[in-house]
Hints:
Elements: E1 4-6, E2 16-17, E3 23-24, E4 27-28, E5 40-41, E6 53-56, E7 59-62, H1 67-76, H2 84-95, H3 132-139, E8 147-151, H4 155-168, E9 173-178, H5 185-199, E10 205-213, H6 214-224, E11 235-242, E12 250-251, H7 263-271, E13 278-280, E14 301-304, E15 308-309, H8 310-319, E16 325-332, E17 346-347, E18 353-358, H9 363-368, E19 369-370, E20 376-381, H10 391-401, E21 408-412, H11 418-426, E22 435-442, H12 444-450, E23 467-473, H13 479-486, H14 490-493, E24 502-507, H15 513-524, E25 528-530
Parallel strand pairs: 8-9, 9-10, 10-11, 11-13, 13-14, 14-16, 15-16, 16-18, 17-19, 18-20, 20-21, 21-22, 22-23, 23-24, 24-25
Antiparallel strand pairs: 1-2, 1-5, 3-4, 6-7, 11-12
Helix pairs in contact: 4-5, 5-6, 10-11, 13-15
Amino acid sequence: MPRYTQPRTGYNKPLLPVPVSKFVDGLPVYGSTTETSAWRVYVPPPYIPPPYRRRWPDGERVYPLDRSELLESNAKRPINQLPPEVLAEIFLKFVEDDKALKTFRTQLRDSNRPLVSKHTDADPILLGHVCSYWRAVALTTPMLWATISILHPKKSQIRLLQLWLERAGSHPLELSILEEQEPSHIEANAARDVILSVTARRRYWKSIIFDITTDTLAVIVPLLQSPVPLEHLDSVELHLSIPSKSGPVVHTHHLLRDPDVYLDDVWSLFHSCSTLRRINWGHAYSDITFPAHCPGHQLSDITLYPDISLAILMELLSLCSNLEQIRVQALCLPSGTLTTYTHNPVLLSKLHTLNVTADTEVAPLFRCLTLPALRCLQLHYRLPDSVSRDSEGFCDFLSRSNCVGLETFQLIDGGSCEEDLLNYFDSSIMRNLKYLRLNSRITDGVVRRLTVGEPSHYPVLMPSLETVILKGCVTSDGVLSGMVLSRWSPKTFSGRCTPLKEVWITAKGTYGSIDEGEFARMRRGGLDINA
């Protein structure tokens, strides 16, 4: 839609179009038609604050302001009197990825501009649309432009991508590029242009997440092998797919055996970076031994995708003495080796977060690990009900590790029985938990064990709990609300436990009248409860 200006003399003269050359980032550049007449710009009503509105007989209209009036008004605003470095910090918060927003926003998948994250539509360009002071601060804050996410590359994104890269300057870059798995010819060309643009500035890479096709990777392999040091590279996540016109996408489980694909050469380059700390190999090394160039001693955070065997996992962990976090997306183990598998015990003294999704019994894993610094434990079992959970062996692992700092425990397992859950609870290591999430068959016995009892001599289970998430509850009416009330009402806990701050409960079926009434009353009392 064309933008129009109006001369200073009178409001009834014909509107004059503003040339495209007089716009920067979508904003008009204020100028003058002569030495005495300044242009005035009409701005749509949603962007004009109340002081700039006037009530006319036929409704609210926007009247124009000249540049001097606008600058004088903006300068008097309290936020524009902040030092530029303080305003820059506010801007960085504006574009910061919303950590609470985990749901992928599908409307962003077709964005025609770069994003700071696939989880948010915050755009630093908008900051320059407010006033000249904000624009000046935004343009002189490289960090504001150094986080770039490109979803499904398009030609329309390339110019703005180059603009962001220029404004980021020499600041370390955090890049995320997600390509269509079956791109059209035009989309494939756009993806190559995008990847070439960011590869040209590989010297400044700090974090990269590339989900691209093998054809796109082949374009940048020669560039990556050129002698340009990756002196800032801290994190690498690489997923590859092979486009197929005749069938579904074939993921790269066996790309290393294909001489036409240089995946191992690329990883060898990344592994050679002395600053590298975090890695997600995708499917690159899921079914073979990790290569000798893997820098296990310097890694602090790794993510392993399906499917990785317990033997390969333990081999890798034995090399990663400084590991702090690990996520295993699908642990597998041939059934014939479950009872016979052995491995020398592995002590990881710095590991504080363990996240395991398992399609097989995990008892052998816990028999081989000692994690004294463990603070967050997340387990997702996709096992038949007939497979033993070995809750006693799990408790032995906790006792052996003596991880008294464990604060977060999450268990997703539809096959766990009440006895298994109670065994987990009875471990003394669980006493300091602050966050508990259970997705399982949760019965009256489990909920009553979490309830703070009336007798003062009865020990309180997990007295420091602040957040409780229970999904899959099969309980009698009043049992759930009684547990929550016992841990929230000031009349009941009397200093024996920390009051709950957040509760999420999902039942199989509807709640009874007692639970419904008590939940509503606690909501009115200020408890953040979702049930």
